[in-house]
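Complex record, two chains
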Amino acid sequence: MLEVIDGGLRTTVQDMGRRGGQALGIPPSGAQDGFALRVANLLVGNAPGGPLLIRDDPGAAGLELTLGRLKLRALQDHVLALTGADTGATVDGEAVPCWTSFVLREGQTLACGLARSGARAYLAIHGGIDVPLYRGSRATHVSGGFGGLEGRPLAKDDRLPVGAATAEVAELAGRRLRPDLVPAYAPPMQVRTVAGPEEHHFTAASVEAFYATAWKLNPKADRTGMRFIGPELSFKPGRPRYLIEDAGADPSNIVIDPGAPVGTVQVPSGVEPIVLCVDSPSIGGYARIAIVISTDMARIGQVRPFEETRFVRISHEDAVAVLAAQEALIADPDIII
Amino acid sequence: MVYDEPIFRTLGDTAINVEFGDESSIPINFRILAVDFALREEPPKGLVETNPQVRTLGLVFDPLSTTRDHIVDHVKALIAAQGTVETLPSRRVIIPALYDDPWSRECAEAFGVRNNIEYIAEFNDMTVAQVIETHTGCDYWVTGVGFVPGAFMSYAMDPGKRFGAPLYRTPRTWTHARLLNFGGLTSTIYPIRIPGGGQLFGRTPIEIFDLREISPSFADGPVLARAGDRHRYESIAREEYDAIRAEVEAGTYEYRVEEGTFDCAGYVSWLAETGEPAERLDPESTWEPA
């Protein structure tokens, strides 16, 4: 059991998300940076679960810290690991490294500061956070009010139940991720995409601009969508007139469509492309210039406000190869040393 | 327009959209729902989820246990074998609503716009009374469920009563739960308190999304609507609204849901008799479907 002393800016219980909700409007939710949460879970000896959506395995639940800040006190001995954004974490004032498991003894306090690089930090606990499953996952969806701890972010005085330990504390402490695998989160972030279903509605110059621009993240970004500031994109002339009544007067309006569950890049009115994220709507009505590949949603989750992102187009086949390589990595026991 | 052959669009590494046309069309939706039922009954290996909507069937697949081409070939074969969609399972759901309600007015005031139902009336050359009469005057076909948890999209089944209003240019930052609204020709209800750009015109006392999951009429867990439902709205007065709301909150309200089957082929013939074109075309358009 852990006691929350300060819940921070927005800390939620997340795992690798909820499957099967697309046709009910229920988003996958789960960690915005799935790689970081899965590694944190591996470090503390938990099931990593995932990947998001395509496997019915949410893995163990941990915490997602938005831009850092969290203070927790242990009510018994626990093994923890912090990954993702570096928050300069301390245990009773002593620094603890990221991407390495450590022990938090009964009565000790873990304090995470504001993120120094990256936007989201992940905390995993041996045994996992033991809140009830809702539709197969412990992931919090705040606007729907379900999953996690009462469907809301953590607040002062919350108690976090932890699942039963299956290994000795001493066995699990001091494990770390192979150093060459620790992401740098150095801007500009390179995010790979596959061409979107309405790419052909945009002018050739706008498609070129989309891939040539270093886009700055709008600070209003959240788990529903991240908007990027940059040049205005335009649409080819000659749009069918019946779509004005059916979809809307703006050339970016399309008749409702499902899109990809996460990673869809919509461009309403040609202004500020939005990457739809893990809590995003299951349908949309705006032209989609690109789809971020599932593996790189982790990178999107680590972009800080006003930091730059560049989109790089690859093929569907290459995107699948990237996913296969990531899954081989997660399954490789030698990545934890 | 309705495409001669559906277009299979690859979305990233794990999704495919099967697009049947670019317009909202109930006959297209019949075909999509029929394919969706077939896929749910016998899903091919590696198919994870389906998301049927008005003109497009969304598919999520696991590219590490199948390939895009296998899924595409499987769905193409289903479509080729489909023929005319004769019937679909379809429930009829009665939705009571207080039109021109104080909560829709409050939202409009909070965002500095006029009472939306008056705007809808003006946009359609109607009176407010005609808006209510028209909206309660025919069934609405639920083409798909989604957007936020429990939301759905529906369209008037009688083309003579089809109307709507454009979305706000700048969406509101919040909307009360359970407000009826138009986004273009789409009629829907906000299930929960969320931002949104729909033109608001009424409020239902019944839940569209209910985490308590106490009504047996809910389609799948906390969600009332199901693709292929026919919704019929009923205008009620404030007293009745309050009485139903109290029953819903107490968990004693009986949702008015009738199981049934819908004669899709008969409806398509009837549509043709009304003079409704099978598809909308713009000969001057230079946009290519792909």
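Note: The mean pLDDT of chain A is 96.
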